[in-house]
């Protein structure tokens, strides 16, 4: 299905939709990594953003159960030059397209990602829309300009855990982690350094954290 990307300065890109269909809004940013797309998709710091990957082929090793940086994907949309139609990795459980469909993420391929990256690198990160429903440039430009963007938005409330949980219960050092969008790899590293880790929601009160008696 045809999809359009419209940036708030009027720049338009056209490609093919992946995953789900509809419209999504976010701040358009880029990532130059050759690998690690699963970590990027599940990184809480990308909440409210549409990520464009500069590496030309994405998805060739699929999605597995081990490499996520949080329980769910957080970005608003995903843009690639080409999505690999097949994947090959002994840990892989599904392809990236299937993952997008299951998690209701709107993605686009067949985009000149180098041109898009160069544009936002020179002009700065800006609001954008991806749409499969409305394909009129003028209409989409009006919508994206009216979208609220990230300025003044409290994104922590969307990515923080809702209740306290123990990451691991064994370790020499007792550590409390305040979850303002923490990545699992931070918790893995604490565990590897002999820490007993408990994760608290960002809205936790001081006495709730101190009652855990962290060092």
Description:
This protein is 24% helix and 29% strand. It is an alpha/beta fold.
Separation of the first and last Cα atoms: 54 Å
Low-pLDDT runs of 5+ residues are none
Arrangement of strands in the largest sheet? 1-2-8-6-4-3-9
The helix/strand order is: EEEHEEEEHEHEHHEEHEH
Tell me, what's the shape?
A: globular
Q: What is Rg?
A: 19 Å
Number of DSSP helices?
A: 7
Number of strands: 12
Structural topology:
Blueprint: E1 2-7, E2 12-19, E3 23-31, H1 37-41, E4 49-53, E5 57-58, E6 77-79, E7 82-83, H2 96-102, E8 106-109, H3 113-123, E9 126-131, H4 137-146, H5 156-159, E10 165-168, E11 173-179, H6 184-192, E12 195-201, H7 206-210
Parallel strand pairs: 3-4, 4-6, 5-7, 6-8, 11-12
Antiparallel strand pairs: 1-2, 1-9, 2-8, 3-9, 10-12
What are the defining features of this structure?
about 220 residues; alpha/beta; seven-stranded mixed barrel; three-stranded mixed β-sheet; about 30% strand; globular
């Amino acid at each position: 299905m045809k999809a359009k990307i419209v940036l708030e300065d009027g720049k338009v890109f056209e490609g093919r939709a992946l995953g789900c269909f509809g419209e999504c809004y976010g701040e358009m940013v880029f990532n130059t990594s050759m690998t690690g797309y699963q970590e990027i998709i599940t990184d809480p710091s990308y909440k409210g953003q549409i990520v464009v990957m500069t590496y030309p082929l994405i998805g060739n090793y699929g999605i597995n159960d081990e490499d996520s940086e949080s329980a769910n994907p957080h970005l608003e949309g995903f843009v690639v030059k080409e999505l690999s139609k097949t994947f090959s990795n002994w840990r892989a459980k599904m392809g990236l397209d299937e993952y997008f469909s299951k998690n209701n993420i709107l993605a686009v391929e067949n985009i000149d990602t180098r041109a898009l990256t160069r544009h936002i690198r020179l002009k700065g990160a800006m609001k954008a829309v991806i749409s499969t429903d409305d394909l009129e440039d003028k209409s989409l430009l009006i919508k994206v300009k009216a979208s609220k963007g990230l300025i003044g938005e409290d994104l922590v409330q969307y990515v923080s855990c809702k209740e306290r949980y123990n990451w691991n219960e064994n370790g020499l050092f007792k550590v409390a982690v305040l979850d303002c969008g923490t990545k699992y790899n931070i918790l893995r590293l604490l565990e590897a350094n002999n820490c007993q880790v408990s994760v608290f929601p960002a809205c936790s009160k001081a006495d709730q954290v101190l009652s855990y008696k962290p060092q």
